[in-house]
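Recap quiz, item 2
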Amino acid sequence: MDSRSKRNRLLSWLLPLLAALALPWLFRSNQYNLMLLTTVLLYGVLATAWNIIGGMAGQFDLAAGGYLGLGAYTAGTLLLRWNITPWLGMIAGGIVAVGFAVLVGYPLFRFKVREVWYALSSAALVSVLRVVFLMWENIGGPTERYLPFHQFSLYHLRFGSYIPFYYIMLLFLASALLASAWIRNRKLGYHLLALGDNEDAAEVLGVDARTCKLKALMIYAFIIGAVGGVYACLYGFLHPNFFSSSLSLEVSILGIVGGLGITYGPLLASILLVSARELLRASLGGQLESLYLGIYSIVLILIALFRPQGIASFIRVLAARLRSRPSRSRV
Amino acid sequence: MQSIIQNILNGTMMGCVYALIALGLSLIFGVMNIVNFAHGEYVMLSMYFTFWIGSLWGIDAVATPLITFPLLFLFGLVTYYLVIHRTLRQKYVTQIAVTVGLMTLLRAVAQIIWKAQPRALPYSVIQGNFVLGDYTIMLSRLVSALASVASILLVHLFLSRTWPGRAIRAASDDLDAASLAGVNYAWTYALAFGLGSALTAVAGGVLMAFQQVDPTMGLRFGLLSFCILALAGLGSTLGLLISGVIVGIAESLAMGLWDPRARSLVVYLIFVVVLWLRPRGLFGRK
């Protein structure tokens, strides 16, 4: 029985991994589909990282766009100014994002800014960063800064096709999922989940809320900042609009719809909602550009009201039913 | 020096309108402890309603609140009973998620109906400037500031002198005690939400007298009124007005003396610093 459940467990992540590895090969003839897949993965990474601060720790963070932009500008500027490879730039971007997160998060948690006020101040930070980079002509400025084009250069992380980006994103997604699952089964994860459930009660029981939340914020910021480097190379330019409040909103929506605190939930939501968004965009064109936003919102409201555990809970119910059927027949 | 005073004058006038917007938010937050993320979107919506009424029937922007006020009140009631009502006993994440969903939904609807380009009304009866020594004052801004202050005063009288108003204040102080004294909380909540949304109609009307509207401007008004609310704290109408004026002046000075793009920067910085240093606000009593 034990070996069987172990085998099931292995299959439950091995099969999706194999499928994910094979997907680009299926769609290799169509760059649009590859872009769609890469975008889904990108949002999967962002939402999975958000889940650590938003889902586990229960801090409604709306600054994903800020960390993404910081990472993108760090990696992009290192490449443009000193020709430093974005592979290092990513790490630098992650570190810059973490630095900013600590700078902002420490006082926020220190002064017990939480719940709605945390959400609002993090949303405000994205707008602050956007304006700062608009006005900071040396690094940002209102015009796009294009990264040098290469048909295929691993060093510059520039490719003429989406396939390499897809695999890089997949790598990021796997790391983000692993990080999230790893934290969840450690002391930090239990503390975070307790905080997300009831902050006062957790503190009474001896959870150091300030440190735990700061750690969660740092991990989240690092992942998103590092992805920012790929983000810049994927789009091939830098622009202050990377500090996007709508992207931050979208990431948090995916996290909630997917299922707060459930490792694979946000990925599931990204697969469903982001591909739905891109398909709608492709089929309706610019005519109803914002229809997807409306659909997102309605899904969000319905899920939040009627299924606060998110769509991942459907999978859980399904898995439980599948598991219980054979055992019942045996009894 | 002259430009500083001119900017302070402009900022004071805008600040009064901001305070009116924040008053609606503060009513809702004070009573049911829910921050309505969609509040800025209500302002955007009432500006569009003003635009519609103004361009279809030729009614002056400043007079449209007569129509949009009941409209937004109804709209507030509908959203309260459809959505907000169900979140009252939920965790705060659900409450944020629902109002954030409402915010993006309204923005999407506005983009679908009115498209992305900014809209403005062609004329308003109140136009032109008058000169006061070295300074010029735009008549439309002065009128909207006065209308906002008058509305704030009316709301203050309503809250302190009438029974439903007192019920709202009692419910925000202590719901259980208020219930014992005969306050029907369901009605009070609905009334507060309706009134909070309806106040944006006045703001939307006077704003359309000199501004244009586009579907993305809701978030700006939203964050602006959160900032004012954080600065003022709960429970003091005068404090709200003063905070609105402070924010208005800061924004105007940043625009005039530094860089037009810095307007939001200053507002958000005030917001973040206030949250850090004075979580109860400058005038809060809770």
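The first strand of chain B starts at residue 129 and ends at 132.
Chain B touches chain A at residues 35, 83, 86-87, 90-98, 100-105, 107-109, 111-112, 116, 215, 219, 223, 226-227, 230, 259, 261-262, 264-265, 268-269, 271-272, 275-277, 279 (CB under 8 Å).
End of item.
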